[in-house]
Design a protein that fits this description.
23 helices; SulP family inorganic anion transporter (chains A, B); mainly alpha; 6-stranded mixed beta sheet; homodimer; Transcription Regulator spoIIAA
Amino acid sequence: MLSWLRHYRRAMLPGDISAGIVVAMMMIPQGMAYAMVAGLPPVVGIYASILPPLLYALFGTSSTQSIGPMAIISLMTASSLAPLAAPGSALYGVLAAQLALLSGVVLLACGLLRIGFLANFFSRPVMSGFTIGSAILIIWGQLPALLGGKLPHVHLPSVLLGLGALALLMWARQYLTGTLRRIGLPPGAADIGAKLAPMGVVLGSLALVTALALDAQGVATTGQVAGGLPGLNLATSSAHWQPLLQPALLIGFMIFLISMSGAQTLALKRGEKLASNAELVGLGAANIGSALSGGFPVTGSISRSAVNFAAGANSQLASVITASLLGVALVAPNGWLALLPLPVLAATIIVAVLGMLDLSLLRTAWHYDRADAAALVATAAGVLGLGVEAGVVVGVALSMGSLIWRASRPHIAVLGRIAGTEHFRNIDRYSAATAPGLLMLRVDAGLFFGNVEAVNERIEDELAAHPDTRHLVLVLSAVNAIDTSALFGLKELNASLCQRGVLLHLAEVKGPVMDRLKQSDLLQTLGGRLYLSAAMAWDDLVQ
Amino acid sequence: MLSWLRHYRRAMLPGDISAGIVVAMMMIPQGMAYAMVAGLPPVVGIYASILPPLLYALFGTSSTQSIGPMAIISLMTASSLAPLAAPGSALYGVLAAQLALLSGVVLLACGLLRIGFLANFFSRPVMSGFTIGSAILIIWGQLPALLGGKLPHVHLPSVLLGLGALALLMWARQYLTGTLRRIGLPPGAADIGAKLAPMGVVLGSLALVTALALDAQGVATTGQVAGGLPGLNLATSSAHWQPLLQPALLIGFMIFLISMSGAQTLALKRGEKLASNAELVGLGAANIGSALSGGFPVTGSISRSAVNFAAGANSQLASVITASLLGVALVAPNGWLALLPLPVLAATIIVAVLGMLDLSLLRTAWHYDRADAAALVATAAGVLGLGVEAGVVVGVALSMGSLIWRASRPHIAVLGRIAGTEHFRNIDRYSAATAPGLLMLRVDAGLFFGNVEAVNERIEDELAAHPDTRHLVLVLSAVNAIDTSALFGLKELNASLCQRGVLLHLAEVKGPVMDRLKQSDLLQTLGGRLYLSAAMAWDDLVQ
């Protein structure tokens, strides 16, 4: 806790200050926009960007993670609350905070139970598919705000403003860094300058709205923002604990996954180490903080954290500075925030989310592992077809399904002896000799419930192909573990082989595996013997 | 299909006939009792024992599997239908058949899609916990029928009859085989004779009810059984397809799991091979057949199949004979069936289910692998606390959780060279020398999304412990596969190490793994080199 503060060095201060300012300027339009995605008033996005990063700074372990509203979590919030309350209603706001509270408690509990390994339930292709599907849903959801009406009805001034901002932002995304470098900025500064384009476009559009009185012409704006810092929010709806529990579990899971995947990337760049259970506690505290300040579920944002990192953040002090600046923005006169045009905020969301439409993993997977590519596409389709929450379930199911599927097809080699040596190799790859009556199989995977049937089937196939077999030697050099299911599988195999007059032998059992087997009765009941090496089994069994 | 009939030999006939008769005599009380467990009239249990085994004989692959009602599936049927209709109502019967139809379609679809590997989602400890929890629920559910009323209210004549039958059956279960052998029966026949005790007790109780007019004294009996074979049932409730879908998925999964685990045990005894996808088709057809004859979900019964096997069944002809005899029993005068006392049927259920309360796997797992034992207990607790359907979900989650947990803790060894040899070993187990600036790690598991973070963390730990490292060699001799997630993990590791001035080398990459890696750009971007063996890496990198 706060170990970054104990080791703080003065030299870290300038980087933290500049990163704190840059991220605050990025956070204002982004926080407001993501609150819109969540179906909440824009100011709630600012509320959710103050207390959460302060609490994360207390408990979290990443030095550069920027905690606050994030597109996918906002989308999940909206989709969880939609059946329970109308967006804009007082109940909706209460439920959003309650959802953050429950998600925070879930995260905190997982952290205290030390079950951070659960994040491994999602493979990267599935995460990529989930992100792509969510990005498309978010863009689709912003079209009415961008165009000032639901298609086919649009509001022309809004369309012009929205599409203009969109074009400007897409140009900035592609070319602004280069332009800034050409006018003399150093590479790092140019990069950061380009990231502030949304703030610039938002401020420009504000000037435009004011000058042309566009709000009077029907362009929707954010509307009056309540001034001052958020008050302490303790409102909950007792009737909604139960219907919010399942969404909170799914959202808590995604909060952790999204935050970790971003933080890992940055930690790798600095050779830092993240403690996943401490991260769970940090994210849990952040979400409880969001709930207490009337916010909604928050997480570490990959894009914002990358800017924080690039702008020189050396510690969580940068986030503390960002949060302080946002607090100042709420306390200072902020009547101008009321006139931010929604079409422009929608454009900033769409451009931010375009970065999530990254197909590079799909391309790699397509060439490297077609099954992973299929899982990616299926998860994206699940999010689009069934919604973002069902998408999480589809993702977990596909990750687990592919795991079980791979596990159920272990590589098993029939071994033969390389003439004149002590070496045994796969007879399909090497010219190695087998001996009559002796069948040697090497299983290249740990034995567990997922492959015990497959191993059995393969053994029966080989026995059918070698009907003269009297001795079956399982070479376990690549078997790192044998679980209880596989132990029973081996016992049944042994009994079945005994009945058929075949002796089962084990060779090259690893130390930790042998330690376990000694706790069972397999070794006492084994029809055959235990050999230290395949060569010793051969010498003993071949006459 | 019907391959057993094409290869039928005359010598198989006597065994099939005797097994067919024995199983039919076992099936009558059991079928009626399990229909009671499912909340259905007892005769429906006979209906569900005729067409299903005939269809399984057409499509299934096990020679000795006995298809029909089974305790756990009946329990799941009752718990699925309870929220939808009142037991005994016409709708309840329609929904039971509809559930069988949907389960059958699910099974058939899985078979045609060839996704039988999904059965591997359940580990054996979890299956054992599920069975134990279900057995306790079934016994608990039969207590009112056994005692003639809900506790604390009991009906004395029923209690006497029920507990008497229970005592007799438990005695028979323990001692009848021995008694029959002492009076001269050969071991096999004595064993089978003992299995017919339930039929004997049921017939005896029938005589008692008739002689003492116990039904007039308030002992509940089966009541009038509609005579004749079941008619073709096409009734379904269109409002219930959707609420029945999820139960049908869970029940279909358990039908397959239960049937396969029984059939596997018997197949191993004969060295037969089961085709899991063909089994799915056989079980799917059987359940659709059950639906068409007004039955309810059915599966292969482990206990009945074992009797079938022991009584000499050589092929599915035994099941065809059983089904024919049950058909005859329905067509013949069967007024006597109306007087079967329910307390006695409840006693037969309880004694049958006691066999499921098998703690041997728990004992083994307790000594062999504490985590597996915990999963067993947690699944049993889940069934008891949350119900049998939620228990399936808990079981899958625990199986997957333990899999991910194990996967997230791969064994990684720091390698050193055994002086004067080309052998490299774990420096914790052998006295092997390391070289300054060179760190060699052997990962003893396939690299995939479940362990990519753990491998990364361990590498960072080792790098922190060896800050002078200039070359990191990953020895991949035990890595059988690298999935897309792990490929990206390696690419990121490589980039991160390059930044820090450490070169990443790979050694002893297996053939199939290398074939894949060549489809990616990892090898081009690798900071270090590729070595055929750990010794070659050492020789090249140590000056």
